[in-house]
Write a structure and sequence with these properties.
Layout (H helix, E strand, L loop, with lengths): L12 E2 L3 E5 L7 E9 L2 E6 L11 E9 L9 E15 L5 E7 L7 H16 L1
Antiparallel strand pairs: 1-3, 2-3, 2-5, 3-4, 4-7, 5-6, 6-7
């Protein structure tokens, strides 16, 4: 398969978790389901009856990602980021898949944190 149109600069963490988003958090928030995340952006699916987000629109997104540390496998950290919609397309289910590029990247790479955690967990099991 030709990946010449691939624009991603880092591997994304596939992760299904609720997200909340809006053009302005003073407005009604809309919910979605995260598809994947990297330090530079997030992709999520949202209801087709919700607000449609054309490319370039500014959004604020609130979400949680796993902490990958300690003994609690359900531990998460909540994050709020602003950014712009770089892609919005209707998917087979009729839902919309929205990709948002963050204005300020996350201070970590989610896939590296999860990989490091799994390596550490493997060392502990030895």
């Amino acid at each position: 398969m030709d990946h010449s149109d691939e624009r991603r600069q880092e591997t994304r963490l596939d992760y299904r978790w609720p997200v909340w988003f809006s053009e302005d958090f003073a407005e009604t928030m809309t919910h979605g389901l995260m598809v994947d995340i990297s330090s530079g952006g997030i992709a999520f699916d949202c209801d087709p009856d919700g607000v449609r987000h054309p490319e370039g629109r500014h959004l604020t997104v609130r979400f949680s990602i796993p902490r990958f540390e300690g003994d609690d496998p359900t531990a998460t950290v909540s994050i709020t980021r602003t950014g712009h919609v770089c892609r919005a397309q209707q998917i087979e289910s009729g839902a919309w898949r929205v990709a948002v590029e963050f204005e300020t990247p996350l201070p970590l790479r989610p896939t590296e944190v999860s990989t490091l955690s799994s390596l550490c967990d493997g060392d502990q099991a030895s």
